[in-house]
Amino acid sequence: MSKKQTYLYILIIGGIIALVASVYILYEVFRPKGVCKLDNKTGVCYINSTIQSLLSCKYFATTITKKDKSQNPVVYNLVKLIKKIKSRSHIDPLPHYKKIFRDHKNVDWNKRGNDPAVIYQYLARNITTEFPDSNLFLSYDDCKKINPYINVPSYYCRCPILENNTRIGALGLLQETFNNSSMDKSVVFSQIIIIKFQKKLKNFDFSTYEYICDPEVTVNSKKYFLRSIIVRDKVPVKVKRTEILENHSYVYGRRCDKWYCFNDINVNKIKQKNLDEKVFKNELVQFAVYEVE
């Protein structure tokens, strides 16, 4: 091979490397921050879903990262995880989860399909210790005040999850609870409201309510916007050569004013024309997360 050919090959290889590097740099520069794939190697879809749903809340995502020097190990490690999610396009969150939920008795790393509610509550309880004067989540006293009206179990204090067993949707539930004439008017409503749908809403009455999860709702003169929904579905899983159906959770959430589907390592942007079917009228919704703008 002549020197000219050698130089030519070097130039070609160098050009390809430079092109690939340029594409990667441009991708990282223009990539929507916070749009990150999360590995799920041990059945942690319910934790992935909870984290992705909360990161869809603008105020939460910006406020929590200010506590990067927290003495609370849960908050400290949560902030480290969130910063990593914001700066990367694909991570393995398991090492962070094991630090965050080290003292959580209900997190079993060998059990699949756990309930995101226990994750919401655990995080809310620890985060509230860092923001005692914030209304990011409902205060303990206010939770006790509204408990008689919405039957929130005591372990949901700080992060009351409104349980909906009917087919009235998010708007109907909020109207029936927070706008109840007997509601204690001294309650300071939280920045984030989480609604839990107990059953699949296959027979939802769309003649009464346009959406299952309305894009926005007004609660006691406060306007709340839908930030994310967690969907629970059955997926086939092979266990010892036998295929069984297991619960699997994934999220539709907002990032940079766009809707995405966060399904562990599968992340896809949702087209505007598909929002009704996939987000606002999704009959498999398990949790809906609303936040004050």
UniProtKB/TrEMBL annotation:
Stored SUPFAM superfamilies:
Cysteine proteinases
Which superkingdom? Eukaryota
Q: Which GO terms describe its biological process?
A: protein deubiquitination
Give UniProt keywords alphabetically.
Membrane, Transmembrane, Transmembrane helix
Query: MF terms per GO, please?
Result: cysteine-type deubiquitinase activity
Q: Where are the transmembrane segments?
A: 7-27
Q: What is this protein called?
A: Peptidase C19 ubiquitin carboxyl-terminal hydrolase domain-containing protein
